Amino acid sequence: MVQKVPACFTGLEHLATSVILLDASQKVVYTNPSAEALFALSATKIAKSHISEVFLNCEVLDIAIEHAIKNDSPFREHEFAITTVRQQSFAVTCAVTPIEIQEATILLEFQQMDQQLRIAKEERMLIQQQANSELLRNLAHEIRNPLGGLRGAAQLLEHELPEQSLREYTQVIIKEADRLQSLMDRLLAPHRVPKYEPTNIHEVLERVRSLLLAESPNNIWVQRDYDTSLPELIGDREKLIQAVLNIARNAVQALLANGTAEAKITFRTRSERQVTLSRKRYRVAIKLEIIDNGPGIPAEMVDKIFYPLVTGREGGSGLGLALAQTFITQHHGMIDCRSKPGETCFTILLPVESSVVKNAIIEQ
What whole-number distance in Å separates Cα of residue 196 and Cα of residue 253? Predict the structure, then answer.
């Protein structure tokens, strides 16, 4: 059953914050979509329920409501724990405001604290990523010119050397110059303008899965846990493949190096409702999780793994995750990681929204 929204409440439908309206007897008269998503409660099921039946044994909230009513003025209660009728607990901030709109007399506005921390972390990572990207781009441009001259000089020298054995040294110079050139190209690759088009996330994952199995056919089990009802998104298919592949390859390398028994990688997709990315609210986003059962990432490295040239693997370039983050950011999304021994999970959120389509077309 769909909640009937009175005309005077329609402006609350699109708020990023979670809003619940109460009548004079503190019974729920309206719940906006953000509150439904945050507390995992159906608006129709909690309608006409007393607020104490929605949030159990929450004395802090009761006192805040009483204070606002008594003084007929807004009252804000900062971080406190709240438990829903479904026994789910959250750390929230709540603003209680007396109002007079139709039958509603109290407005409760909730903000989840861990969501605010996630948004702040995302903004810091975005700023850091942009700074790193600019630094690496400038560095790559500065290195490419003398590198080309070095390689050319080695080729000329090779033709002048009288003995074949001496040419082995020039070949070392040429091959190392080519290796550095390849590295510079990878540093500059993120700056190619994305080619946006309708993209099925599961086609992206299937391509990555086939590449992983081709590279390690007998050592890795790639499990699929897909929500096949997910819509297409507007994205650059090749960049999305590269982002997921970089993460998955890191996982494979960690699993093989650790000699993990029954090494497994799981691709899981789900939909997310009412997601905030870069301070913009999206109705729907695709949530992609890449999970492995490897040794985990050391705690001191988890906050640094998306920085370029940071790697915990001998011989690694430290560019794979930095590039993955850049590609996901170009799709207005975000990437995060949590890790413990026996399980590492990279979570990618990609918005599915008409406004993203418009932005993609404009950018092209």
Answer: 31
Confidence tier at 329 by pLDDT (50, 70, 90): confident
pTM over cut 0.90: no
> CB-based contacts of 187: which residues, under 8 Å, 6+ apart?
136, 137, 139, 140, 308, 319
Average pLDDT over residues 1-19: 67
Instruction: Please compute the mean of the pLDDT values over residues 263-278 and round it to a whole number.
Output: 84
Phi/psi for 282 (5° steps) reads: -120, 140
Q: Of all helices (H) and strands (E), which one includes residue 174?
A: helix 167-188
Q: Where in the chain is the domain with CATH 3.30.450.20?
A: 7-113
CATH 3.30.565.10 domain extents, the chain: 193-364
Domain topology for 7-113: Beta-Lactamase (3.30.450)
Give backbone dihedrals phi and psi of 110, rounded to 5 degrees, phi first. -105, 145
Nearest Cα residue to 183 out of 139, 220, 221, 149: 139
Mean pLDDT of 306-326: 69
CATH number of 193-364: 3.30.565.10
Q: Strand order of the sheet with strand 343-351?
A: 221-225, 264-277, 280-292, 343-351, 334-340
